[in-house]
Amino acid sequence: MTAVNTARASLKPRRSAVLTATMTLYLVYTLLPLAWLVISATKSQPDLLTTPSLWFGHSFALFGNIAGTFTYDDGIFLRWLGNTVLYVVIGAGGATLLATAAGYGLAKYRFAGRRAVFAVILGAIAIPGTALAVPTFLLFSKLGLTNTPWAIIIPSLVSPFGLYLIWIYAAEAVPDELLEAARIDGAGELRIFFTVTLRLLAPGVVTVALFAVVSTWNNYFLPLIMLSEPKWYPLTVGLNQWSAQATGVGARPIYNLVITGSVLTIVPLVIAFLLLQRFWQSGLSAGSVKQ
Amino acid sequence: MSTAAPVRSPLPGRTRSPRRRLDRRGWLFVAPFLIVFALTFLAPIAYAIQLSLFREQAFFGGSAFVGFDNYVEVLTDAKFWTSFLRVLVFLVIQVPIMLLLALVAVLAIDSARLHASGFFRLVIFLPYAVPAVVATLMWGFIYGGNFGLAADLNHLLGHDTIQPLAANWILTSLGNIVTWEFAGYNMLIFYSALRVIPNELFEAAAIDGAGAFRTILSIKLPALRGALVIATIFSIIGSFQLFNEPNILRALVPNAIDTSYTPNMYAYNLSFGGQQYNYSATVAIVMGVITAIIAYVVQLRGSRKGM
Fold it and tell me: Shortest Cα distance from B189 to chain A (angstroms)?
């Protein structure tokens, strides 16, 4: 074979059926539990216990289960959904804005103390988040913030990972010349940020937003310790409470509602990831430029 | 905002005063983050350190300064060390399996030999969008004897061979849940690191006659080293913090998972089960320090290797 032929063969190799088959095993591992969950969501409580787990039951109870999930206990699930949306919109939205502004500030302004800020924030990433949970709870309890939405929202506002990603991204995506030109045109720093910078940072911002949304939507530990009343629960803590009432004294198993509620909890995030994949995939790649 | 006549330095770093002016405006963007950061990171750390130096007084009420007594107690606490060793075993076995799985997946996806590689990438990443609560409940049901897959399989075999929730299998079962949740996420981190390798490198390798495995060894794996170090550090932190999965699974198997199963569950239950806030804060600090030291060592070793 000549060198050129080898080059071509290596750059555009043939698709391999063996490799695809092997990877399909991994795909099955990933999808099997989710398939089980979705199939189980179509079963009534008796069918769940009596029919084979990977196939549909005698009746198709999905819509009944969805209705049951939303109406059980005076529609508390809807309340939990509303709480989750509130925490995500303000918490993750705020986290994205703060991380974007700070990442941009660190990348584009050479102020004194910049290195110190970097060191402190990187150090913070290494601290186990849950190690902070108990002291944060005690601190918030002194401030009277526990068992209020603020106890969930305020800690959600900080995303060191988001800041890091935007910092790397801004260094590449926002040319200094453009900022200088805008300043010569008489634009203030804030106006430059909102009109010029944000547009250039869009893929990075979408990535940070998506990951902030996921971590807030999926947050379990923080609300578990901060909240004592079910009316402020997000979906995660609520679902676990439903699941826990199946065991112990006075057990009232509602497995079909736990399973259907789980499906309903996942669906919005899966849709968000599918719709926004073009953005987050390019945003993440940019983040690893400097690794 | 003052936008008074923009002073522009012709060359960055040449004139001093305009640079100073520009400098301070950076705080405008960084300050909001830092304020919330101080409230949610720095203040709790300071408070935890303060708590760890005091102890509740059983009879007199209030708390008394005890110096490092709490630390001495944690370091000689059998419950703490049992839970620590458990997450250490978990870490040493689960993290390599998960990262290896992610590595194999990303090399397959990036090899251009896979049919529908974009689909594979997306689906393998998907579990990341599933909350730990849902993932654990789901796997818990699947493991269970009531209506899970394990029960079906045992029925098929006519024997209770598969017992994922039995005490001697529970750590493995937890490892499976965590692997399922995070292998795809690590795969994506690796994937974005591979994306930024310049194409010329592959062309040059191909011209030199390098095959697929040679390319992996000489180009892709070295390019992945940074991402691998970061993924390892995050996985170490995640393992030492292990809480959600065992705590949720505990509802199904209260006998196999006790209240001090992981250091974090221990700290949590000390606080919310036993009101021992000072001791709980000390456990959290000790775990935080151990985690930070190990993460630091991994980072040092990782960035030195093969440079």
Answer: 8
